[in-house]
């Protein structure tokens, strides 16, 4: 039985996954030690200052500061070590295991007998057995199952979500052996309200997460393809999706947009595509979905070009306001954001632009929505931040803006069309 107050847990990686988890463990009276590469963030978190803007964690961390260091020594005093480091992809979309390998090696240096090591980072099936466990054993000289225990509990954080959080999201757990599984289930059941479901292996747990996110990616690709098709059939795809969504079963609503960003959805399918490829299977369907979604920024620019031409404006002599850098509304995370793809195409085609995101001033080229519109001849909404919801026809016409491409189908198309503005959404 876990005696929380006497159980020290090291959390490696205190980003959007590790930090909420560390705070929750502390709230549940575990002894928590944070480990993070960045010394400034380590110092801030130790003082209860949250290094990112998620308001939920700012308050929580102030009340429950986490003693955090950049070194791994505290692993030797921890009964449990949970690794929550990023798992990005490289340029060629191959999985980049560097953060996982570095964390694993550092943990192994201080690993003591009886410790339970859990990886929460998203990895493809087989990673625990081929990347993590061999390095833990080789460097520590200990044996998995005999001297230490290993599990995988894939993270399911949904940044910006006001309802689902680290405490209430159900989780799955896979382990190297039965003992490790029992210990891991005991840990998560002692801190979570969400259901904790045991899988029969590490691979199954790794596969669950990848399948969740591939499922989301292919469904987004499906509605993106519908959007491109229906826009030629003069059908509003959003109305059709909402209509289909009235069916109380066997339909799950997804919406088309100017692209798929984030640290998970556009990345995770490549983990499976590459791993399956190495084992002789080609995921043509997953690859096609990725191709469709990766093409949406280009499709969006095509809509803009058509609109500018219709309005008799020379795109080469115009400035476009790109509104939104974050990969989704209400957050400042811009990893894999479609906006960067849009700007890359603009740079290549020498199309002038300004870009504004109220959550990411450092990457904005203007200081306000007003300034962006003052300088624009056309607008692309790339992120449906609440602030952009107040854009109305007058704000455009007074700046002689004749084209609005709504990359998130965010605004009321009718009022813009009725005011003579060339409005196009994605599929409407
Ligand atoms: N998107 C669409 N159409 C949709 C839904 C999303 O174009 O219908 C786009 C978004 O604009 C965004 C990207 O896809 O650019 C990812 O959207 P997301 O809502 O999946 O955002 P994430 O990656 O932060 O959150 C996901 C979780 N989201 C939900 O389940 C709602 C979930 O897949 C995982 O818990 C989490 O990532 C993760 O960590 O895997």
Topology, pairings included?
Blueprint: E1 8-12, H1 18-27, E2 31-35, H2 39-46, H3 55-63, E3 67-69, E4 80-83, H4 98-109, E5 116-119, H5 127-140, E6 149-152, E7 171-175, H6 178-191, E8 196-198, H7 202-230, H8 237-244, H9 268-278, H10 284-294, H11 296-310, E9 319-323, H12 338-348, E10 352-356, H13 369-374, E11 378-381, H14 393-397, E12 403-406, H15 413-418, E13 422-425
Parallel strand pairs: 1-2, 1-4, 2-3, 4-5, 5-6, 7-8, 9-10, 9-11, 11-12, 12-13
Antiparallel strand pairs: 6-7
List keywords for this structure.
single chain; 428 residues; alpha/beta; eight-stranded mixed beta sheet; five-stranded parallel beta sheet; 15 helices; 13 strands; elongated
Question: What does this 3D model show about the protein?
Answer:
Helix content is 39%, strand content 13%. The chain is an alpha/beta fold and 428 residues long. The strands form two sheets. An eight-stranded mixed β-sheet has the order 3-2-1-4-5-6-7-8, sandwiched between helices.
- The helix count comes to 15
Q: In percent, how much strand structure appears in the residues?
A: 5-15%
Low confidence ranges: none
Helix proportion: 25-40%
In a few lines, what is going on in this structure?
The protein has 428 residues and is an alpha/beta fold.
């Amino acid at each position: 039985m876990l005696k929380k107050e006497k159980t020290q847990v090291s959390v490696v990686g205190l980003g959007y996954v590790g930090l909420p988890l560390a705070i929750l463990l502390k709230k549940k009276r575990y002894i928590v030690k944070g480990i993070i590469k960045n010394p400034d963030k380590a110092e801030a978190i130790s003082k209860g200052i949250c290094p990112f803007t998620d308001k939920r964690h700012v308050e929580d961390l102030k009340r429950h500061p986490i003693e955090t260091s950049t070194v791994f020594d505290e692993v030797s005093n921890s009964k449990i070590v949970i690794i929550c480091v990023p798992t990005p992809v490289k340029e060629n979309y191959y999985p980049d295991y560097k953060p996982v390998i570095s964390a694993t090696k550092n943990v192994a240096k201080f690993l003591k007998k009886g410790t339970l090591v859990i990886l929460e980072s998203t990895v493809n099936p087989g990673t625990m057995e081929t990347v993590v466990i061999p390095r833990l054993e080789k460097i520590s000289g200990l044996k998995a199952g005999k001297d230490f225990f290993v599990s995988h509990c894939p993270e399911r954080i949904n940044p910006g979500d006001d309802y689902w959080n680290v405490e209430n999201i159900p989780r799955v757990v896979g382990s190297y052996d039965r003992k490790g599984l029992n210990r891991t289930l005991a840990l998560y059941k002692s801190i979570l309200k969400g259901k904790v479901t045991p899988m029969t292996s590490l691979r199954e747990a790794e596969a669950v997460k990848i399948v969740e996110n591939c499922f989301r990616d292919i469904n987004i690709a499906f509605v993106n393809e519908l959007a491109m098709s229906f826009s030629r059939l003069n059908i509003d795809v959003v109305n059709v999706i909402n209509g289909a969504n009235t069916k109380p079963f066997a339909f799950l609503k997804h919406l088309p947009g100017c692209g798929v960003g984030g640290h998970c959805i556009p990345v995770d399918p490549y983990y499976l595509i590459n791993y399956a490829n190495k084992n002789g299977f080609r995921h043509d369907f997953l690859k096609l979905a990725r191709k469709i979604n990766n093409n949406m920024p280009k499709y969006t620019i095509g809509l803009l070009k058509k609109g500018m031409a219709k309005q008799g404006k020379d795109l080469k002599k115009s400035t476009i306001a790109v509104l939104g850098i974050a990969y989704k509304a209400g957050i400042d995370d811009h990893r894999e954001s479609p906006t960067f793809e849009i700007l890359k195409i603009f740079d290549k085609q020498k199309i002038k632009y300004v870009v504004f995101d109220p959550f990411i001033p450092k990457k904005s080229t203007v200081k306000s929505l007003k300034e962006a519109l003052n300088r624009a001849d056309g607008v692309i909404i790339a992120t449906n931040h609440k602030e952009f919801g107040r854009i109305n026809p007058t704000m455009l016409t007074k700046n002689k803006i004749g084209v609005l491409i709504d990359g998130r189908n965010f605004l009321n198309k009718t009022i813009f069309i009725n005011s003579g503005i060339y409005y196009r959404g994605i599929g409407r």
